[in-house]
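Action item from last week, closing it out:
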Amino acid sequence: PVPSVSEEFTRIHQRDKQVIPKQHFSIKPNSRHPFSREIYAGLRGVYTMGLSRLSITGFTGLMTLDLPIWAKTFYVYPRLIGLQNHPLQKHQPTEGQSTTLTGEKGETHTFSNLKEYRAGESIRNISWSRFSQLGRPLLREFDTRGGAGVHIFLDRRVVGRSPLCEDTAIEAALALINSAFHAGQQVTVHGFPGWENKEIVSESEMNRLLNSTLMLNFNEKELSELREIPEGSTLYVISPISDWLFLDSTFWLNQ
């Protein structure tokens, strides 16, 4: 029999609002005091569950005994969502105008740019519209759709909203990186601390990148890393912020 028991619980998650209130109760002879609590791990990070203090007070109330306590720590990582090896397509800044060319074995190619025609080259891909404008022949160049390398940038500026927005952005970025990697594309990541301009070349690197996001903070103040990405690269930006600059072609021309 215990006349007075006091329990205090550990804080579950540093950014979570789940709190287990203190428990005060007494136990009669040959009885138990069952208590359970379901914890929902809605955010990535470290969860510590269990007691932080367990005290028993005697009948007189003059003596209190603190008993050994237990707690367990769990690490909740972002989900790695499968996109069934969907390759990321190469998009060119054509302001919505796209030209395609069917190559051998049904391959589809996307217009890349124009180059000066040199004697002896095939005239199959001459841009006749530009020839009529400029008076000199220019050849259209094409890239295989989905075959070129891609750059994936995670925008880690301060969100100022629910931490769930940050976790969603991380999961979206990881899903695209993982999908492009398994589709055989050259994937270079940006916005992940310690992984700047790093190319993902193996399954183990993909797993290490996933593990590095456990305590990833959104504390950047600017988009300076965008300037380090080579001009003309195929770039995917994942951002939890509604920043309409990403849809403004003038913004990209200034980067």
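Closing note: The chain has a mean pLDDT of 81.
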